[in-house]
Amino acid sequence: MILPVDGGDGQCDEKTAGRFPHPDECQLYYDCSVTYSPPEMPGGKGVTECEYPLLYDESSGKCMKEVECGSRMLKKNGCDYYNNRCYSIRCPPCFLRFPECEGLTDGTYPHPAKPGTPRCMVCKNERFVEEIYCPVNVITT
Q: What are the backbone dihedrals phi and psi of residue 84, each rounded to the nearest 5 degrees, phi first?
């Protein structure tokens, strides 16, 4: 891992190297080896997003599941991640891929967008973790 060398403004420029956390959002970080960031990403050059449900861990310099975000905003819903937004009519609706777990305790629930099917969602810390076949004890009707 390359240790971050901040150029002073918290962004990647000719004086900055390495990876470091985005100041506002926990799933974002700066990777100064990246030369392009999509325009919808806040923060300019080098802004990179962890894959949902991962978050950027400052101490390891990696995207991980269990992270202390501090004052950085934690986006609980996968549809709020920039990389999960789709601007084409051919994309499946985001809620099918990333059902919402906000307000739910840790556990397994019937997939809200797939009623009557054996598909369930697993929630942890009010975040969607994975889609699974429902265990026998989860009612899906």
A: -95, 0
